[in-house]
């Protein structure tokens, strides 16, 4: 199978970025919008073609999906250790290509309406294209180092997009926060890469993930070196997961995600819902055989528990937030925790690998309905010019399309059949139930919470009290409505894709079937959540308020996100800055700088004194010359005659 | 060969001349005086060439040729130096070394 | 006899040289230099290089000295007294030069020169042939180079000596 055309999928957005970036001053906004959309549309078309080719025509050999790699050596260290650049095609990368290009295309189209009239219109599209390029490159990476390069590129473009409204202080702060937090996590990632590279002797996914026909990992020398009771490779994997957790906003590195909502809403939909934040999930999935086989999956267990905890934690916080984008942000974090959980409870072979499949499935469906939710929220914000629930209510009369599509997305995320979320969530719960009952109950509880806070949001925006608006809210233009409709359609049908046919841990298709009792329980939980939300928020009443008051301090804690931001601020400002950085800075200023400046000052002083020697008087020079020659000659004669 | 005079004595003479030249070169404050000191130095070395030729390698004439060349180069050099000095005198009305120091800028 | 002549010459040269670098009158200084140069010519006569002595006399004593005298007369009053260096500088230079002289003499006297006893007289013809010879040891190339150098120096001296007038009146040069 010739895969070279896949190279164009990331390269076209790059070309668009360069074109728009260089011609920023010259290109008219309308034209740049069309260029951006056209570029992404081409990429998306190529991705669909690639997906068709791979899944239905030539990807499968003897029932196993092949991993196809095309690469060139970029930097050569030793015979085995070298950094390559190339593209890697296997089921998950193809799936991610489809997800990224689809969502990106929708967001591009949507942005044409949403960003209309903005002064930095062209710049915005350039950044979007840069992000698309980075994300697609990340997806197609063939080795850890290449993925790291694109990982950082993704971080940079995310920074640029979050800080897009750079005149707003909060946006700049949020951009910095996102960048610093993820960068901190990437520090762990880099160390992990180096550890794995050093001890495994390669960066290549193929070699790292190699599995023999009996279904055992081939990276068997993992046990050779150990550190603090764990194999070094496990430490490496944990550090790599730290990088993934940073990008995917897993506890405790989640603090940047809510703030990142300062960016334009399409950006939130693209980056902080559907694509970039799942990079961590993708990374773990990419190294899944390694996580699974090394030290009997210790690192994978960590992934599962971190995922489950983040999921629960974020869901609880989401209950109390009043900024609709923040609710969605915590919801995203919660759902990604779900995916991590699913990966964590997965096994490798055949049907036992259902968790892996479910995780990827959920990634796929979640991308669709979460992007839809964000775009819908953007549409609402566009209409009422506010992020806060208190400014909304009764919007269903004004914005029918947004209302319907938002409802579909909410139902999807709540896990109501037959919408997409139901199918993927069900698979996750099945996987968790088979492996670890505790995690299953956490998952179930989170599902209920999700349904509740989603419908709290839905009823709060579209039903509830009838707010008096200064400007009559209006339905969004077609360019914004079309992506909503398309994604709503996807949210309905995506669940029926037989994912286990395509994406599995061992790349062999298996038959997934619905586990009716578990599905019934999950749906029941979701419905309970919806009904409670119905009672609380359908009509304007003070039930919710009384409830919140009953919980008192706990409510307050949750509302302040358990004071995590404050804790981090305390740790960094009070402890790190005051106790460590300030003395070091003083030392630096006093001694290091002092030494350097002293050398400089002394040089100046001495120069002042001896600059008379450079008098420009020929006779003085002759004098020095003669005396010098005589002196040196004397020394030589003394040395030679002895 | 000078009867009764060894090469050492001639060398002593030329060394003395040479260092007198250097002394003059460093201490004199007038461009023409410096030129004169230079002539002393040149002559001292020219004598050395000739004497070494005569005393150590009487069969060849290299030293003599070198002396001729030194004389020729000295003539050219003096002509140029005098031209420069006169030109300088036109410009700044002085041939003192301290007045020519502005040339370093 | 020759010994006495040499010593007299040496004495004249050293005294004249010292006088030349320490005289406060410019013209006298040049004349003392002339004595030194004549003394050098005398040394050449003594060691039987008559041609060289003649060249020395004509070019140095005849040409260069005249040139220098002319320049002195152009830029100085005859009676003008030269400014002298500070004493400290003189002493410092003097010490330095004395040490250097001592060094030279030390080296010269510790070196064993292999003197070949001879009393050859060199003919002008031999010098002329040597200068124009192409063979090994021939000096035809330096000879030509020195001719060019002299020409160049002559033109250069004229241009520099003419100075402003030339460049102002004729921009083509």
Automatic annotation (TrEMBL), chain A:
Gene3D superfamilies: 1.20.5.2700. It is a multi-pass membrane protein. Residues 141-446 form the NADH:quinone oxidoreductase/Mrp antiporter transmembrane domain. It comes from the Bacteria. The keyword Flavoprotein does not apply. The chain crosses the membrane at residues 6-24, 31-51, 92-110, 122-141, 147-166, 178-200, 220-246, 267-292, 298-320, 327-348, 368-389, 401-423, 438-459, 480-499, 519-537, 621-640. Residues 74-125 form the NADH-Ubiquinone oxidoreductase (complex I) chain 5 N-terminal domain. Its main location: membrane. This is NADH-quinone oxidoreductase subunit L.
UniProtKB/TrEMBL annotation, chain B:
NDH-1 is composed of 14 different subunits. Subunits NuoA, H, J, K, L, M, N constitute the membrane sector of the complex. NDH-1 shuttles electrons from NADH, via FMN and iron-sulfur (Fe-S) centers, to quinones in the respiratory chain. The immediate electron acceptor for the enzyme in this species is believed to be a menaquinone. Couples the redox reaction to proton translocation (for every two electrons transferred, four hydrogen ions are translocated across the cytoplasmic membrane), and thus conserves the redox energy in a proton gradient. Its EC number is 7.1.1.-. It is found in: Cell membrane; Membrane. Belongs to the complex I subunit 4L family. GO terms for cellular component: NADH dehydrogenase complex; plasma membrane. It holds the Pfam family Oxidored_q2. Its main location: membrane. It catalyses: a quinone + NADH + 5 H(+)(in) = a quinol + NAD(+) + 4 H(+)(out). This is NADH-quinone oxidoreductase subunit K. GO terms for molecular function: NADH dehydrogenase (quinone) (non-electrogenic) activity; quinone binding. InterPro entries: NADH_UbQ_OxRdtase_chain4L/K, NUOK/Mnh_C1-like. Coiled coil: none annotated. It comes from Flavobacterium franklandianum. It is an enzyme of class 7 (translocase). The chain crosses the membrane at residues 6-26, 31-52, 64-89.
UniProtKB/TrEMBL annotation, chain C:
The keyword NAD applies. It is a multi-pass membrane protein. It catalyses: a quinone + NADH + 5 H(+)(in) = a quinol + NAD(+) + 4 H(+)(out). One of its GO terms (cellular component) is plasma membrane. The keyword NAD applies. InterPro entries: NADH_UbQ/plastoQ_OxRdtase_su6, Nuo/plastoQ_OxRdtase_6_NuoJ. One of its GO terms (molecular function) is NADH dehydrogenase (ubiquinone) activity. Pfam families: Oxidored_q3. This is NADH-quinone oxidoreductase subunit J. The chain crosses the membrane at residues 6-23, 30-47, 59-79, 91-109, 139-160. It is found in: Cell membrane. It is an enzyme of class 7 (translocase). Its EC number is 7.1.1.-. It comes from Flavobacterium franklandianum. Its main location: membrane. NDH-1 shuttles electrons from NADH, via FMN and iron-sulfur (Fe-S) centers, to quinones in the respiratory chain. Couples the redox reaction to proton translocation (for every two electrons transferred, four hydrogen ions are translocated across the cytoplasmic membrane), and thus conserves the redox energy in a proton gradient. PANTHER family: NADH-UBIQUINONE OXIDOREDUCTASE CHAIN 6. Belongs to the complex I subunit 6 family. Keywords: Cell membrane, Membrane, NAD, Quinone, Transmembrane, Transmembrane helix.
């Amino acid at each position: 199978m010739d895969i070279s055309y896949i190279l164009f999928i990331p390269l076209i957005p790059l070309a668009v970025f360069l074109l728009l970036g260089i011609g920023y001053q010259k290109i008219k906004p309308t034209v740049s919008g069309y260029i951006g959309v056209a570029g992404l549309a081409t990429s998306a078309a190529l991705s669909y073609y690639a997906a068709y080719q791979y899944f239905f025509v030539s990807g499968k050999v003897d029932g196993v999906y092949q991993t196809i790699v095309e690469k060139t050596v970029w930097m050569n260290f030793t015979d085995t250790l070298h950094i390559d650049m190339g593209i890697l095609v296997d089921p998950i990368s193809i799936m991610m290509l489809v997800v990224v290009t689809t969502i990106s295309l929708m967001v591009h189209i949507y942005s044409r309406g949403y960003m209309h009239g903005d002064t930095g219109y062209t710049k915005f599209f350039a950044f979007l294209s840069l992000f698309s390029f980075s994300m697609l490159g990340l997806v197609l990476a063939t080795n850890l180092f290449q993925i790291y390069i694109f990982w950082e590129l993704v971080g940079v473009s995310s920074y640029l997009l979050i800080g897009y409204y750079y005149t707003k202080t909060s946006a700049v702060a949020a951009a910095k926060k996102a960048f610093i937090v993820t960068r901190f996590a990437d520090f762990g990632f880099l160390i992990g890469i180096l550890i794995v590279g050093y001890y495994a002797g390669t960066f290549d996914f193929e070699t790292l993930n190699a599995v023999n026909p009996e279904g055992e990992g081939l990276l068997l020398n993992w046990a050779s070196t150990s550190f603090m009771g764990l194999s070094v490779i496990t430490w490496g994997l944990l550090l790599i997961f730290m990088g993934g957790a940073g990008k995917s906003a897993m506890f405790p590195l989640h603090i940047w995600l809510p703030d990142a909502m300062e960016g334009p809403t399409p950006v939130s939909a693209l980056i902080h819902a559907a694509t970039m934040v799942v990079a961590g999930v993708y990374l773990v999935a990419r190294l899944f055989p390694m996580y699974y086989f090394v030290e009997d999956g210790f690192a994978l267990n960590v992934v599962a528990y971190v995922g489950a905890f983040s999921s629960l934690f974020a869901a609880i916080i989401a209950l109390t937030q009043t900024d609709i984008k923040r609710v969605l942000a915590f919801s995203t974090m919660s759902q990604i925790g779900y995916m991590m959980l699913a990966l964590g409870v997965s096994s490798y072979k055949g049907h036992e690998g259902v968790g892996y499949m479910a995780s990827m499935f959920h990634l796929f469906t979640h991308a669709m309905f979460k992007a839809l939710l964000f775009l819908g929220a953007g549409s609402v914000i566009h209409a009422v010019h506010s992020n806060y629930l208190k400014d909304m209510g009764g919007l269903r009369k004004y914005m029918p399309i947004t209302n319907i599509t938002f409802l579909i997305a909410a139902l999807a995320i709540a896990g109501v059949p037959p919408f997409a979320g139901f199918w993927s969530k069900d698979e996750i719960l099945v996987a968790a139930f088979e492996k670890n009952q505790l995690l299953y109950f956490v998952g179930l509880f989170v599902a209920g919470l999700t349904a509740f806070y989603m419908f709290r949001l839905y009823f709060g925006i579209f039903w509830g009290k009838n707010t008096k608006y200064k400007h009559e809210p209006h339905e969004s233009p077609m360019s914004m409505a079309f992506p909503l409709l398309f994604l709503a359609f996807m949210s309905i049908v995506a669940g029926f894709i037989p994912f286990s046919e395509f994406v599995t841990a061992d790349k062999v298709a298996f038959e997934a079937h619905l586990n009716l009792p578990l599905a019934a329980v999950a749906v029941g939980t979701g419905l309970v959540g919806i009904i409670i939300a119905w009672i609380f928020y359908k009509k304007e009443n003070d039930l919710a308020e009384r409830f919140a008051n009953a919980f008192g301090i706990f409510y307050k804690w949750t509302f302040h996100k358990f004071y995590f931001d404050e804790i981090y601020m305390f740790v960094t400002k009070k402890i790190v800055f005051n106790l460590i950085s300030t003395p070091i800075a003083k030392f630096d200023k006093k001694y290091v700088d002092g030494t350097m400046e002293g050398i400089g000052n002394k040089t100046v002083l001495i120069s002042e004194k001896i600059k008379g020697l450079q008098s420009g008087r020929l006779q003085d020079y002759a004098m020095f010359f003669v005396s010098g020659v005589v002196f040196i000659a004397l020394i030589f004669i003394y040395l030679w005659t002895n | 060969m000078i009867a009764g005079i060894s090469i050492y004595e001639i060398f002593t003479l030329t060394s003395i001349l040479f260092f007198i030249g250097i002394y003059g070169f460093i201490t004199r404050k007038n461009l023409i005086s410096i030129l004169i000191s230079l002539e002393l130095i040149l002559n001292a070395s020219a004598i050395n060439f000739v004497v070494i030729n005569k005393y150590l390698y009487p069969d060849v004439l290299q030293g003599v040729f070198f002396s001729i060349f030194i004389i020729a180069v000295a003539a050219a050099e003096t002509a140029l130096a005098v031209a420069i000095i006169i030109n300088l005198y036109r410009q700044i009305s002085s041939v003192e070394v301290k007045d020519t120091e502005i040339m370093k800028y | 006899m020759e010994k006495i002549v040499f010593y007299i010459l040496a004495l004249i040269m050293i005294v004249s040289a010292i006088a030349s670098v320490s005289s406060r009158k410019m013209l006298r200084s040049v004349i003392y230099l002339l004595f030194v140069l004549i003394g050098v010519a005398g040394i050449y006569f003594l060691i039987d290089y008559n041609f060289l002595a003649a060249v020395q006399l004509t070019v140095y004593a005849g040409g260069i000295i005249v040139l220098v005298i002319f320049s002195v007369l152009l830029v100085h009053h005859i009676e003008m007294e030269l400014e002298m260096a500070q004493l400290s500088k003189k002493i410092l230079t003097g010490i330095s030069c004395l040490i250097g002289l001592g060094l030279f003499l030390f080296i010269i006297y510790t070196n064993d020169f292999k003197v070949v006893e001879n009393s050859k007289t060199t003919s002008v013809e031999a010098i002329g042939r040597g200068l124009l010879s192409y063979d090994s040891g021939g000096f035809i190339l330096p000879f030509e180079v020195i001719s060019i150098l002299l020409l160049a120096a002559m033109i250069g001296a004229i241009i520099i000596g003419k100075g402003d007038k030339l460049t102002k009146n004729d921009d083509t040069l």
